[in-house]
Amino acid sequence: MSSSRSSSAFLSYCSRVIRQQLPGVRAQQKMAPTPDHRPDLDNLDGLNPRVSAVLILFSLQDPHSILYTVRNEDLSHHGGQISFPGGRQDTNESPRETACREAAEEVGVQPHQYEIAGCLSPIFVPPSQFIVHPWIAFCSERPELSIRTAEVSEAFWVTMDDLLNQDKIKTGELTYRQKTLTYPYWDVHRVPLWGATAMITSEIVALYRDFLEEDSGI
After folding, report:
1. pTM exceeds 0.90
2. HSE-CB of 171 using CA atoms within 13 angstroms
3. Residue 115 in domain
4. Which residues, in sequence order, are CB contacts of 123 under 8 Å at separation 6+?
């Protein structure tokens, strides 16, 4: 970020773009596994998807960074994988309320510690059949965390410099439903940052890159 602009400028930028038009699928697909047979969100007939939400906590403290967690390996869905604080929507709860509640439960971050800019593009996760609503929130400095170990084994920050670094993007392979998937991932932790979390991150990176270009007048 240019030193000529305050740290809150990216928050304002995200709020504006969320109201207008997000990068969406175009950005998400850059970190999608191949082949990716993910159905369109407007055509999920017969799948009976469940709603979940995550909180993307973006620290405006230098260097700018994002909070991630490693899910407890004993969890039934995506155990041992990198994620954002989040989970399933409760009855009579909005996705935004879900994201805030889960962040408080999993890492001890309270709503008064951050400002929410809005919701990024939802994404459907085929293995768990969840539609994930990613809410991006900003804090002026990294808050002290209190990890709920039954759900989260670790919480850590990744700088935007690392996420913008193309050398950090690698490729892996796995077998899913007897088929080989090739997937891109960020090599920023002992656990690969891949899958839906990487696809959500890819939209954040696109927003951040566009913001920097707008700031520099490119």
Report:
1. yes
2. 6
3. yes
4. 28, 131, 132, 134, 196, 199, 200
Phi and psi at residue 180, to the nearest 5°: -85, 125
Amino acid at 202: S
> What is the identity of the amino acid at 96?
R
pLDDT of residue 79: 67
pLDDT digits (tens, 9 = 90+) for 166-192: 999 999 998 877 788 899 999 999 999
Q: What total number of domains does the chain contain?
A: 1
Residues across the chain: 218
Q: Who contacts 56 (Cβ-Cβ below 8 Å, separation ≥6)? A: 66, 67, 84, 120, 134, 135, 136, 137, 200, 204
Cβ contacts of residue 26 below 8 Å, gap of 6+? 206
Q: Which domain holds residue 123?
A: 9-37+49-166+195-216
Q: What are phi and psi of 9, to 5 degrees?
A: -65, -35
Q: Is residue 1 part of a domain?
A: no
DSSP codes, 93-118: --HHHHHHHHHHHHH---GGG-EEEE
CATH code, domain carrying 157 = 3.90.79.10
Q: Are 185 and 170 in contact (CB under 8 A)?
A: yes
Residue with tokens 């209190």: 146
User: What torsion do the CA atoms of 76, 82, 88, 94 make, to the nearest 10 degrees?
Assistant: 180
Alpha carbons 144 and 102: distance in angstroms, whole number: 16
| Identity of the residue numbered 125 | V
d(CA 209, CA 124): 24
The 3-state DSSP class for residue 134 equals strand
Is the separation of the CB atoms in 87 and 77 below 8 Å?
no
